[in-house]
Amino acid sequence: MTLPSGHPPVTPSQVGVLLVNLGTPDAPEPRAVRRYLKQFLSDRRVVEIPALLWQPILRGIILTTRPRKSARAYAQVWTDAGSPLAAVTQAQAASLQTMLGPDIRVAHAMRYGEPAIGSALDVLMSAGCRRILVAPLYPQYCAATTATVVDAVGAHLATLRWQPTLRYLPPYHDDPAYIAALAASVRAQLAALDFAPDVLLASFHGMPERTLHLGDPYHCHCQKTARLLSEALGRPVEVAFQSRFGRAKWLEPATDARIEALGREGKSVAVVAPGFSADCLETLEELAIRGREQFVAAGGQKFAYLPCLNDSGDGMTMLENLVRRELSGWL
Ligand SMILES: C=CC1=C(C)c2cc3[nH]c(cc4nc(cc5[nH]c(cc1n2)c(C)c5CCC(=O)O)C(CCC(=O)O)=C4C)c(C)c3C=C
Ligand SMILES: [Fe+2]
Ligand SMILES: [Fe+2]
Questions:
Q1: CB distance 36 to ligand 1 below 6 Å
Q2: Which of 55, 201, 220, 285 has the most C-beta neighbours closer than 10 Å?
Q3: pLDDT tens-digit map of 103-112
Q4: Where do the coiled-coil regions begin and end (predicted)?
């Protein structure tokens, strides 16, 4: 009997891994940024204001002003390989594929923009993957990041007759492999500086404070990562939250306010961003460029931004360990 056209291959069954990050515009231009922001900021998990109220604000104000400003920021960090977040995520997937070998198929996707989660799942299934591990690359769980990946996967699965079997990589904010990779990376980068910073500032992406009171574990996950990193390094690690958006009260202290105060106090500072698995606009422009400018304008002299784990040896070994552990029983 021949299979109907469009039927996925029945053999051989392969295991797939789908790395997912937030997403980024296709170009550092207002039109592309607008398209990206429209999809991102229309997600009800990201902006938890009733759509009837929020959509007019989004379309009438935010999407008419922010894309131009954000495009200028993107242009400052854009690379020959595209947006840093896209380039790094792609490099992580390629490197993980090499580490895991041909029996496991690795793909990557972006929650907003391209490659979309649905098309990446289709690619894995066409390659024969009936079991797929979805790995949202957010160490700290947050409804606005982790949960929305699961929503998008579920929305795609809802369109399929023959669904794959799924597993999800749990949040890894306190996983010894993650803490060890972070500590090794920070230790090596501090040793390469020409100064010993008075303060090591761990800057996490902010969230509306309300989400903490509603039970989102994100704030606690960030605090625990910083405490474990501090214990591993044997030195204090200060926590701050960056990238405030909108008028609501966000988690505090704010990174920009702390950087400015430390500059005023004449302290030397190294900033690390443990919540980002890849360097992106929020780290390269907001911390490494703007953060340094704010620090110097406040009178500070010695400032360093320490890059994320990205596709470094430390970062990839961690990812391989996390993924292999979740795949046990499937191979
Ligand atoms: C790592 C965790 C992240 C959380 C939590 C998060 C929450 C969150 N973000 C916004 C608004 C924006 N974020 C933007 C960029 C951005 N955010 C994250 C990660 C988290 N966001 C990343 C990795 C990036 C970088 C993307 C890139 O292309 O490099 C932006 C877009 C840029 C800009 O215009 O400033 C917005 C807007 C909200 C509202 C929110 C939680 C409620
Ligand atoms: Fe964000
Ligand atoms: Fe930002």
A1: no
A2: 201
A3: 999 999 999 9
A4: none
